[in-house]
Every structure is written in structure tokens, then in C-alpha cells.
Amino acid sequence: MKKIKVLLAEDDTNLGNILQDYLELENFDVTLCRDGEEGLSQFKRQPFDVCIFDVMMPKKDGFTLARDIRTADKHVPILFLTAKSLKEDKVEGFEIGADDYITKPFNEEELLLRIKAILKRTSHAHEPHENYIFKIGQYTFDGQLQELTYKDDVRRLTSKENDILRMLLMRKDSILKREEALIEIWGKNDYFLGRSFDVFITKLRKYFKDDNHVRIENIHGVGFMITDKA
């Protein structure tokens, strides 16, 4: 069975070694880096299935590293490790395109469960392609290629934008409940994720600006609904 390749960037020597040893015992192939620059260098050398980055690192912090990686790869899952618990930091992490965020201290079992949840949520890329094509208004959305097309204009979506839009379109003209979306996409429902979810909804609305018939409506206190009625 092919091992899941993990890029782990953690400058705390003890924690990095503990996490590497634990994940390798769980049959992951782990590349451990001590700073963000080394992490980016390793990412450019070979493909990874999931990235785990400490936020506070020398040379290049985890947020900057994630931004650099997102310019090259919008799909690879990213999980942040951090001692910070400020809501602004969590929101920033999700806006960059993080798939999850775990606050130190944590135990190895919790990290493993988070990784497995991320991989489960992203595994739908192997489903039949036809299950991912949607037409709405003058747009075509390809959820497998993560592309939203309007006439000759093709926009590449981030993983989170892609997941949210697909859930909306699967329930077209019906309500996508906020709690349902947060649990399905992030694996949990909390205030910080709700803030991030709203940011992605705002971005998606802007992407549909060229067709006035397409609307993402806010159903107050419940969730959102996408329609394309004249």
C-alpha cells in the first residue's frame, strides 16, 4: 500500500522528532524540515499528500510558507500547528487556504485524527468526473479540476472555495446549512470557522458578478442558498 507523504515543518526539535516518529509508526512517509525555507525547498523537489506547518518558524513562518505553496498548488491539504489561539490568527490561516488548525499543546492521536479527516474530505477527487460538472446561469463549474468558467474566462478555485461551491450547487435552490458545511468541510463547527466560511462566501459571490441571475442568498441564522432565477 502506498504511503501517504507528509511534509512536516516544525522548528521545535523535540516536537518535530516526536511527530515524525509517531507518524512513521502509523505508516506515513514523513519529511521533517526545521524552518520555512527548507520546507519550501522540499516541496519543490517532490509531491506531498499533506502539509503540516508550525506557524512560528525562523527564516520563513508557516503562513508565508503556506502562501508560497498555494501559488504553486491550490489542492494539497495544509494543517497549521501553533501556540497561538487568537481568532485573528485562525481566520488568517483559513483565508490562506488551510484545511485545519490545531493549537498546542495537543497529543499525537488528535493530530492523526485531524490528518485522517482531511484526507477523507479530499479523497472525493477520485470519484467519477461527471459527478463534478455543474451548470448555473452562464457559468460551468468543474469540481474535480477546481475550475469555474464564464465564456472564455477560467478561474481556478482554492480547495475550500471548491468544496463550498460544490456543496451549494449540490443543493441548488435549497438551503446549505452553515453547521452542515462547517462539519463536512472542516470537520467541526466553531466561531472561527464560521468567520472564515463567510469570507469564502463573499469571494464566491464576486466570482459570479458577470451574471446577475446567479445569487448566493444568506438565509439568516440558517445558512446559504445558490439560485440562478431571472
Task: Using brief descriptors, characterize the structure shown.
Rossmann fold; Arc Repressor Mutant, subunit A; 230 residues; 2 domains
Descriptive notes:
The protein is α/β, with parallel strands linked by helices and 230 residues long. It is built from eight helices and twelve strands. The mean pLDDT is 87. The protein folds into two domains: 4-125, 3-Layer(aba) Sandwich (Rossmann fold), CATH 3.40.50.2300; 128-227, Winged helix-like DNA-binding domain superfamily/Winged helix DNA-binding domain (Arc Repressor Mutant, subunit A). The strands form three sheets. A five-stranded parallel sheet has the order 2-1-3-4-5, sandwiched between helices. It is elongated and about 60 Å long. Helix 2 (36-45) packs parallel to helix 3 (62-72) and helix 4 (87-96) packs parallel to helix 8. It is 42% helix and 23% strand.
Brief rundown of the structure:
The chain is an alpha/beta fold and 230 residues long.
Number of strands: 12
Q: Helicity range of the residues? A: 40-55%
Helix/strand class: alpha/beta
CATH topology of the largest domain: Rossmann fold
- Elements, N to C (H/E): EHEHEHEHEHEEEEHEHHEE
Tally the helices: what do you get?
A: 8
Summarize the topology.
Layout: E1 4-9, H1 13-25, E2 28-33, H2 36-45, E3 50-54, H3 62-72, E4 78-82, H4 87-96, E5 100-103, H5 108-122, E6 133-136, E7 139-142, E8 147-150, E9 153-156, H6 159-170, E10 176-177, H7 178-186, H8 191-207, E11 215-219, E12 223-227
Parallel strand pairs: 1-2, 1-3, 3-4, 4-5
Antiparallel strand pairs: 6-7, 7-8, 8-9, 10-12, 11-12
Helix pairs in contact: 2-3, 4-8, 6-8
